[in-house]
TrEMBL record, chain A:
Domain FAD-binding PCMH-type, chain residue ranges per copy: 180-362
Family that this chain belongs to: Belongs to the FAD-binding oxidoreductase/transferase type 4 family.
Any GO MF annotation of the entry: FAD binding
Source organism per UniProt: Apteryx owenii (Little spotted kiwi)
Protein name (Swiss-Prot/TrEMBL): Alkylglycerone-phosphate synthase
Keyword terms, alphabetized: Acetylation, FAD, Flavoprotein, Lipid biosynthesis, Lipid metabolism, Membrane, Peroxisome, Phosphoprotein, Transferase, Transit peptide
GO CC entries: peroxisomal membrane
Pfam families: FAD-oxidase_C (PF02913), FAD_binding_4 (PF01565)
Site (Important for enzyme activity): R397
InterPro entries noted in UniProt: Alkyl-DHAP_Synthase, FAD-bd_oxidored_4_C, FAD-bd_PCMH, FAD-bd_PCMH-like_sf, FAD-bd_PCMH_sub1, FAD-bd_PCMH_sub2, FAD-linked_Oxase-like_C, Oxid_FAD_bind_N
Cofactor: FAD
Top EC class of this enzyme: transferase
UniProtKB/TrEMBL annotation, chain B:
Enzyme class, first EC level, given as a word: transferase
Membrane topology: Peripheral membrane protein
Protein name in UniProt: Dihydroxyacetone phosphate acyltransferase
Catalysis performed (reactions): dihydroxyacetone phosphate + hexadecanoyl-CoA = 1-hexadecanoylglycerone 3-phosphate + CoA; dihydroxyacetone phosphate + an acyl-CoA = a 1-acylglycerone 3-phosphate + CoA
EC numbers, comma separated: 2.3.1.42
Main location (coarse class): membrane
Subcellular location: Peroxisome membrane
Coiled coil: none
Gene Ontology molecular-function annotations: glycerol-3-phosphate O-acyltransferase activity; glycerone-phosphate O-acyltransferase activity
Record function comment: Dihydroxyacetonephosphate acyltransferase catalyzing the first step in the biosynthesis of plasmalogens, a subset of phospholipids that differ from other glycerolipids by having an alkyl chain attached through a vinyl ether linkage at the sn-1 position of the glycerol backbone, and which unique physical properties have an impact on various aspects of cell signaling and membrane biology.
Length: 636, 664
């Protein structure tokens, strides 16, 4: 199943229709949507998609994912960071706002931050060596049964490898330089709920292992096939279950097939003037089912809520049968909420096939903003106050100094002398006139959404609070670039990998009073561990407070280092990441805020939820899936 | 014997819990390389003290430090959630208005808080230069240790843990840090100093802060004090300095550690308010202790004069005296994070708001105690032993007089043995033994002197006068001499207790010897410093050292004294005889003379009279049993062993003592 790797993507200009425009930029390349106007009415017929030609897919992501997406890295084939002939960094493609732009200071930043040199390249193999791929082992009986269902499938090596991983560092590294020992034996593409029912029945009958696959953006090793799995592994790719089944404007809900990816969902809802407002950073690729299965969180949760707040009804196919509620109501008191067994189950119980989510009218107006604080402490104090007064904008994030400088390095070449003059003036004002130390200051980025008037009012309220904490308004552009940054950063890892730099992000949630200590200690721990493990150049270790709640915050870390001179960089990396997680836990942080547990963080589950808690989850698994058909071994 | 509390089987030593703690691996002990010393007074004798006092003083500081004034710290402490919480609690419980309690807290802070002023520091730098040059020949410091300290101060908050033998300790340490351009420590000093008006104020301005010696019951005081220390530490404002031993050791033998302050300074790390904390053991050894005779009087029950400024002025007399060399060894900073790794369950700290006062969990308490002992053992390891210490040990075994040549010979022999046992001997400037001992005798002429080619204790006035007077004078001389021998004891205690156990069991079976060793270790647990719970390891170390010097041979099952080892064996057992005999006398007193319940005061005067009578009758030669230190330690051990039971606060209730006493 897909886990949202990054939280939210954003690159729209601050205008009323920005959400729509942003999405259209993201997916502008795509073939015309098969969505005919007026189809948003109820379409209850179960398997309308059946029989549709395998050719043009209805969603943004084709069945042959490798045609559109990198096989050994993040995102679209045509979008990546490169160094052009002049040695300047550039972002290719036309999908993103940064596309085609030259980033003049970026090279210097990389060299300074990582001690990396452009002369030392570590290139990936050019393509997958099909001969290295473990063979597909499938019983003839199952294949016959499967063919009889007319469900599309593939035993092609590329298809199978593509679904054998998420986007953890070690997974991408394995694609570039090694190979997975165990991958799915077959990929199936159900197009509707009934197809899933049939597949699960077949799996029970033939004793197979099913690993659901949504957007493939997991960063918890959740998609990795257990090496010791002897049964045939079926990768159940939900990407073709991507229709909005109906929209209920009276109750503001929509019933959607779980395989739809974020960008399609928002785009298609927008055609009717609605949105879910759920925007994890991975929303271009991650799927609704994946969000449910990992307890995803979106950038704009302050207005729209996290996935658990958005979900009204879930239909899930399990080996025991179908689990769902009998009505679509905002709340019910019928014992523990069964949705909470499903949300966060990480593909261990079944396949989520249909979800009814809340929808909202597309907001009239959207505005970015930013505030500079003299230091991180003041910034955190401000965010805490904003949370206390419950006036957080759709999104409010605070990046530390290192990330601020990083964002600065990604500034495109300015078009006019006037702009560069203005930039210089701003810098002068903040550093010289206001006395902010450019090596200490930090920036909060803001995104407001709603009625124009209310947005402006809200904006004033937030800026007034910021002023009390020494904050200075720093313009819309900085805010917008901040959001862009968090989302192109996923592409950056691929560039780093070309130059001996490896990195990853991880996240946690923590009570307010421990935010500062946790941020400081975790960063320090990373630096120390790197030193101890023989990493020669000090690592890049940075964090941002990325979500605010009444009782605490979500903190997001980036961590990368230059691994030249280290024989087993992935092992070293994993040791350091593990130490960082230990540090988080020792500082009163959670095991995960929204990435989930997968197999990467299983070792801490007992400590996190107690023995009895773990036993409760185990007993659910034992009842629902006694033969461990959903055997991805996540979570428990 | 049957009711002996000593365990038959070695106590379970969890490999995890102690793996980082085993303070001295046998191999390490031997190959221990120590830093060289530099004399910091040398420079002072050739250049201007005034210029030194006025030098540019810009100490390196902790990397995360945001500078702030003492007053700002005070108000931060007062406004802290921790203190405010306790104020509110107290207000609720007592019905007193919070404002009044707050004022009380403010007073406590004023009484306690330091207010470091550079002027006072410079004043001290100047006068201390003058005084130290008069008092001491040399003040030797391991410069590498100072460099390590300088490094540590920049990295993490630092806690200085010096040994405590004299009031000179903290003056000297501040002086030292000033000399090396390091931030002056804030010192948790006993509040008795406040009695010394001018000096107290000066000390305060030089960075000392004061704590009441006992404030167990006063929650407000505890909260304010703890928060004050922690604020200081969290900000990395200055190194915190306090004495693990709690008070000056009157016997020059390391006292068992107190845990209160240590657990306070460790808390910010447990709660992850700081990334790490460095604990720096510092060993300060005096060739001659300033307060030596004062201590001896005190141990014999003559009350010590209360610290007062006029008392200090009277002490000017001593300025004309010579107190030899001081050695200060700044140990390797120990990372608390490293010590704690894998030992602390983080849950208790994650589930309660950090500002709420929380009783430390059992594993935290155990950890604090382990760290305290570890730090004391590190102090002991780097305590410098001067030739005189060896002379004193030899002399006390050869009373009333020892031939000078024989003394030299035995001292040299003991030097070798001490080094084998890992003792840190500083032999002055490669002097030949005779010269070194002669100069030692000159320095300590108040304790011993050379008469007709024999060295005798200097018990002047003991020849004439009443019997009681003679015994008192003699005891005084023995105790003063003992102060120097005592410096060897913690280095010798493990092999020596093996020897004593060997003699007591009259068996060669390892198991039995170990059982007796382990029992002795428990009995002497307040007398000497043992790392908790590693009895077997101590035993093995003792055996290893004895084997190394050829005193014993061991097989799988048995331990044999060797023929040539008899010298070592009899020396070691004689060295600890005063303690064996002293404890036996005390137990005899308890089983025969004492009432069923008594207070500690009654106990001490009772034992003192009892021993005094025996000495008068010539039924014992154990003068050291007169020392209140031994008496208190023995009582504490008996309480721990369950032979004596403590009731309420002022009362001590006697239960059963016979089985244990019989054993010794």
């Amino acid at each position: 199943m897909a886990a949202p790797a990054e939280e939210a993507a954003g690159s729209g200009p601050g205008s009323p229709s920005s959400a729509r425009r942003r999405l259209s930029i993201i997916s502008g390349h795509l073939r015309g949507s098969p969505w005919a106007p007026g189809r948003e009415g109820p379409s209850p017929s179960p398997c309308k998609a059946r029989g549709a030609p395998a050719g043009p897919a209805s969603g943004s992501i084709p069945k042959k994912r490798q045609e559109l997406l990198k096989w050994n890295g993040w995102g679209y084939n045509d979008s990546k960071f490169i160094f052009n002939k002049k040695g300047q960094a550039e972002f290719t493609g036309r999908r993103y706002r940064l596309g085609g732009m030259v980033l003049p200071t970026f090279k210097e930043w990389i060299e300074k931050t990582f001690g990396a040199s452009l002369e030392h390249k570590s290139t990936s193999r050019a393509s997958l060596n099909v001969n290295d791929v473990p063979p597909s082992i499938i019983s003839e009986e199952f294949l016959q049964d499967l063919i009889a269902t007319k469900i599309s499938y593939s035993q092609d090596a590329e298809d199978r490898v593509f679904r054998a991983h998420g986007h953890c560092l070690h997974e991408i590294f394995a694609l570039r330089e090694g190979i997975f020992r165990r991958i799915p034996d077959i990929v199936v593409w159900p197009v509707c709920h009934e197809d899933v029912v049939k597949i699960v029945e077949l799996a029970c009958k033939h004793s197979l292992c099913i690993i659901p696959f949504g957007g493939g953006t997991s960063v918890s090793s959740a998609l990795e096939c257990p090496e010791e799995e002897k049964r045939t592994i079926v990768s159940l790719d939900t990407s073709q279950m991507n229709r909005i089944l109906w929209i209920d404007e009276k109750n503001l809900t929509a019933c959607v097939e779980a395989g739809i990816v974020g960008q399609d969902l928002e785009k298609q809802l927008a055609e009717s003037g609605f949105c879910t407002g759920h925007e994890p950073d991975s929303m271009e690729f991650s799927s609704l089912g994946g969000w449910v299965a990992t307890r995803a969180s979106g950038m704009k949760k302050n207005i729209y809520g996290n996935i658990e707040d958005l979900v009204i009804h879930i239909k899930m196919v399990t080996p025991r049968g179908i689990v769902e509620k009998n009505c679509q109501v905002p709340r019910m008191s019928t014992g523990p909420d069964i949705h909470h067994f499903i949300m966060g189950s990480e593909g261990t119980l079944g396949v989520v096939t249909e979800v009814t989510v809340k929808i909202r009218p597309v907001p009239e107006y959207q505005k970015y903003g930013s505030v500079v604080f003299p230091n991180f402490e003041r910034g955190v104090a401000c965010l805490r106050e904003v949370a206390k007064q419950r006036c957080a904008p759709a999104s409010i994030r605070l990046v530390d100094n290192a990330q601020f400088q990083f964002g600065h390095a990604l500034k495109p070449q300015v078009a006019s002398i006037f702009t560069s003059f203005l930039d210089g003036l701003k810098k002068f004002y903040i550093t010289k006139f206001k006395g902010f130390d450019p090596n200490i200051l930090c920036v909060a980025t803001l995104l407001f959404e709603g009625d124009r008037e209310k947005v402006l009012q809200h904006e004033k309220q937030v800026y007034d609070i910021a002023t009390k904490f020494g904050g200075l308004a720093a313009g819309e552009d900085n805010g917008q670039r901040g959001y862009m940054l968090t989302f192109v950063i996923a592409y950056l890892r691929d560039l780093g990998l070309d130059y001996y730099v490896i990195g990853e992000s991880f996240e946690t949630s923590v009570p307010w009073d421990r935010v500062l200590d946790l941020c400081r200690n975790v960063k320090e721990r990373i630096v120390r561990e790197c030193k101890e493990k023989g990493v020669q150049f000090a690592p890049f270790s940075t964090c941002r407070v990325t979500q605010t709640y009444d009782a605490g915050a979500c903190v997001y870390f980036y961590f990368a280092f230059n691994y030249r001179g280290i024989s087993d960089p992935i092992h070293v990396y994993e040791q350091i990441e593990r130490a960082a997680r230990e540090e988080i836990l020792a500082n009163g942080g959670s095991l995960s805020h929204h990435h989930g547990v997968g197999k990467l963080r299983k070792r801490w589950m007992k400590e996190s939820i107690s023995d009895v808690g773990l036993g409760m989850l185990r007993s659910v698994k034992e009842y629902v899936d006694p033969n461990n058909i959903f055997g991805n071994k996540n979570l428990l | 014997r049957a009711s002996s509390p000593s365990p038959r089987t070695p106590p379970p030593v969890s490999p995890l819990s102690h793996s980082l703690f085993v303070y001295s691996q046998q191999k390490e002990l031997m190959s221990k390389k120590r830093d060289e010393f530099e004399d910091i007074l040398e420079e002072r004798r050739v250049s201007s003290d005034l210029r030194y006092a006025m030098k540019c003083y810009a100490p390196v500081i902790y990397k995360g430090l945001s500078p702030c004034k003492p007053n700002a710290i005070k108000s931060a402490v007062l406004q802290s959630e921790q203190v405010q919480y306790v104020i509110k609690q107290l207000a609720k419980e007592t019905g007193e208005s919070p404002d009044i309690i707050q004022e009380e807290a403010m007073e406590i802070l004023d009484e306690m808080g330091h207010s470091m002023q550079l002027g006072a520091v410079r004043f001290f730098a100047f006068t201390l230069s003058k005084i130290f040059k008069r008092l001491f020949q040399r003040v030797c410091v391991n410069e590498e240790g100072m460099q390590r300290l300088q490094q540590a101060i920049q990295e993490h908050p630092v806690v200085l843990l010096p040994s405590h033998r004299s009031y000179i300790d903290f003056l000297m340490l501040s002086y030292l840090l000033y000399t090396y351009d390091l931030a002056l420590p804030v010192i948790a000093a006993g509040i008795d100093f406040l009695g010394m008006k001018i000096v107290g104020e000066l000390l305060r301005r030089a960075g000392a802060f004061f704590m009441r010696r006992s404030f167990g019951g006063n929650r407000l005081y505890w909260a304010v004090f703890a928060e004050y220390v922690k604020t200081m530490l969290r900000n990395g404002y200055a190194p915190i300095e306090f004495f693990l031993e709690g008070t000056r050791s009157r016997t020059a033998k390391t006292l068992t550690p107190k845990f209160g302050l240590l657990s306070i300074v460790m808390e910010p790390f447990f709660k992850r308010e700081v990334f790490d904390t460095y604990l720096v053991p510092i060993s300060i050894s005096y060739e001659r202790i300033l307060e030596e005779s004062l201590y001896a009087y005190e141990l014999l029950g003559v009350p010590k004069p209360k610290e007062s400024t006029s008392g200090l002025l009277k002490a000017r007399r001593i300025l004309s005296d010579n107190f030899g060399t001081i050695h200060i060894y700044v140990g390797q900073p120990v990372s608390l994070r490293t010590l704690a790794s894998g030992r602390i369950n983080r849950c208790p700290y994650n589930l309660v708001p950090r500002h709420l006062p929380q009783k430390p969990s059992d594993d935290i308490q155990e950890f604090v105690s382990d760290v305290a002992y570890k730090m004391e053992l590190l102090q002991i390891e780097n305590m410098v032993l001067r030739p005189w210490v060896l002379v004193a040990a030899v002399l006390l075994q050869n009373l009333p007089a020892v031939d000078f040549e024989l003394l030299i010979e035995k001292t040299l022999w003991l030097k070798g043995l001490t080094q084998t046992f890992g003792g840190f001997i500083e032999w002055p400037d490669n002097l030949c033994a005779k010269k070194a001992i002669t100069s030692g005798l000159a320095l300590h002429s108040n304790i011993a002197r050379l008469v007709d080619g024999h060295v005798v204790l200097n018990d002047k006035g003991a020849e004439d006068g009443a019997v009681g007077e003679i015994i008192f004078k003699r005891a005084l001389a023995v105790l003063m001499c003992g102060t120097y021998r005592n410096q060897l004891l913690n280095v010798f205690v493990r092999p020596s207790l093996v020897v004593v156990a060997l003699q007591m069991t009259r068996s060669f079976r390892k198991e039995e010897v170990y059982s007796c060793f382990s029992f002795l270790r428990d009995v002497f647990s307040d007398e000497f410093i043992f790392f908790p719970g590693i009895s077997l390891k101590d035993f093995e170390e003792g055996c290893f050292l004895l084997t190394k010097c050829g005193a014993i041979q061991t097989t799988q099952q048995e331990i044999y004294p060797t023929d040539k080892g008899s010298v070592v064996i009899s020396f070691l057992s004689a060295m600890f005889r005063p303690f064996m005999e002293g404890y036996q006398l005390i137990f005899r007193y308890l089983s025969k003379e004492a009432k069923e319940t008594f207070t500690e005061k009654q106990f001490i005067s009772g034992v003192r009279n009892f021993v005094f009578q025996l000495l008068e009758k010539g039924n014992t030669q154990c003068y050291e049993a007169l020392s209140s230190d031994i008496q208190k330690n023995a009582l504490a051990a008996l309480v721990q062993l369950g032979a004596v039971k403590k009731k309420k606060i002022p009362c001590v209730d006697l239960l059963e003592i016979k089985p244990v006493a019989a054993r010794l």
